[in-house]
Amino acid sequence: MAVPMYAIDMQPKSAGMASDGQPQSTATAVPVPPGYVPPAMMPVPQRPPGCPPGLEYLTQIDQLLVKQKVELAEVVFGWETNNKYDISNSVGQQVFYAAEKTDCCTRQCCGPLRPFVMHIQDNYGQEVITLTRPLNCGSCCCPCCLQELEVQCPPGNPIGYVIQDWHPYLPKYTIQNEQKEPVLKIVGPFCSCKCCSDVNFEVKSLDETAMVGTISKQWTGFLREAYTDADNFGIKFPMDLDVKIKAVMLGACFLIDFMFFEHSK
């Protein structure tokens, strides 16, 4: 069986001459390591008119998978590090990469309530979305200072907001557009701790009568749930939903992760 090839070694070597007098190529192929899986990236679609740069990826998908990377320092020492996430489509193609930027003192002292800036880049390292979360109260006893998150695309240009609504026992949020006008509602379950099953946050119309999509925290197994705070999420929305609102739903996923699942193990 022929050995598969995945890369070309272009280091200069002593070139010979072919029989026709032309220089002979000295590039050598490198064998694929056992178990190697090349990274799959989503092809860049054409950007429609009015679509912010970088959000053209969202025009062709109705689902995003958000997978948090496991950090060794958190597993071994319990030391809170900046969160990092891979964001892919339903067929596993990489769409975005997200990285939190927070100083060490804030992470250790404020824990999951910490303010943060989340930088979301495309597959070519270009930052397309910026999420900012201020330091606010996390208790329903203080309805005047609840959680919120601003979504910018391109960075510096707000396109939407996620605002926590006061409720005595249910997690509720309002998704707003760039004019801070309500667009959708998010309603979570009474209890966010479920064993061996997903935790679903329903995205609904403003009157909460029609289901629009879901943000689901996926069960990852006993060991990962017990010893890490690295979580997986699935986000579903209509294909024809405004790409800006899709981006705000992605931001809502990170806010929900920090508020309910970013706890020390």
Relative strand content: 25-35%
Based on helices, strands and strand pairing, what is the structural class? alpha+beta
Number of helices: 4
Largest sheet: 12 strands, antiparallel, barrel
Uncertain residue ranges:
1-16, 25-30
Shape: globular
Order of helices and strands: EEEHEEHEEEEEEEEHEH
Present the secondary structure layout.
Elements: E1 5-9, E2 28-31, E3 63-68, H1 72-77, E4 84-88, E5 94-101, H2 104-110, E6 116-121, E7 127-133, E8 148-152, E9 158-165, E10 172-177, E11 182-187, E12 199-204, E13 211-218, H3 222-227, E14 232-236, H4 243-261
Antiparallel strand pairs: 1-2, 3-4, 3-14, 4-5, 5-6, 6-7, 7-8, 8-9, 9-10, 10-11, 11-12, 12-13, 13-14
Quick summary of this structure?
With 265 residues, the protein is α+β, with helices and mostly antiparallel strands. It contains 4 helices and 14 strands. Helices cover 14% and strands 32% of the residues.
Your description of this structure?
With 265 residues, this protein is of the alpha+beta class. It contains four helices and 14 strands. The chain has helices at 72-77, 104-110, 222-227, 243-261; strands at residues 5-9, 28-31, 63-68, 84-88, 94-101, 116-121, 127-133, 148-152, 158-165, 172-177, 182-187, 199-204, 211-218, 232-236. Strand 6 and strand 7 form a beta hairpin. The longest helix has 19 residues, at 243-261. The protein starts with a strand and ends with a helix. The model is unreliable at 1-16 and 25-30 (pLDDT under 50).
Throw out a few tags for this protein.
265 residues, alpha+beta, single chain, 14 strands, 32% strand, two-stranded antiparallel sheet
